């Protein structure tokens, strides 16, 4: 699990504010297929929102911890039935040939990608 500073968490929360959930965890819970889909989304976007359907706060907390541990992601925010997680993708770093410095690749378009497991 990644550790973030409070400044990093604030910045990521601000970035996540306008995002839509890209993965949904339904009544079947956090299956291996759902974990795989979360992994794919983290590789593509780094910062994602996950919607959890279900009223059990304990289940949501358990899902949040399991996602962060198994996928080496950092917990950013848990508010209501939404979980926000972040994992840096080193493959998204590219070398700017003009400046010879590492810069971020262009951000992907935001698309709603829902997977219910």
UniProtKB/TrEMBL annotation:
Q: Where is the composition biased (Basic residues)?
A: 107-117
Source domain of life: Bacteria
Q: Which UniProt keywords apply?
A: RNA-binding
GO MF entry, a single one: RNA binding
- Residue numbers spanned by region Disordered: 94-117
> Is the RNA-binding keyword given for this protein?
yes
What SUPFAM superfamilies does UniProt report for this protein, alphabetically?
Answer: YhbY-like
The CRM domain sits at 2-98
* Keyword RNA-binding on entry: yes
Listed PANTHER family: RNA-BINDING PROTEIN YHBY
Name used for this protein in its record: Putative YhbY family RNA-binding protein
Q: Which organism is it from?
A: Azonexus fungiphilus
What is the phylogenetic placement of the source species in the record?
Answer: Bacteria, Pseudomonadati, Pseudomonadota, Betaproteobacteria, Rhodocyclales
């Amino acid at each position: 699990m990644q550790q973030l500073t409070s400044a990093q968490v604030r910045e990521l929360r601000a970035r996540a504010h306008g995002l839509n959930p890209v993965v949904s965890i339904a009544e079947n819970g956090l299956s291996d297929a759902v974990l795989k889909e979360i992994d794919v989304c983290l590789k593509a976007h780094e910062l994602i929102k996950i919607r959890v359907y279900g009223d059990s706060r304990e289940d949501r907390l358990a899902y949040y911890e399991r996602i962060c541990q198994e996928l080496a992601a950092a917990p950013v925010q848990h508010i209501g039935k939404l979980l926000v997680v972040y994992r840096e993708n080193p493959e998204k770093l590219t070398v700017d040939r003009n400046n010879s410095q590492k810069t971020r690749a262009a951000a992907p378009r935001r698309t709603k990608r829902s997977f219910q497991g």
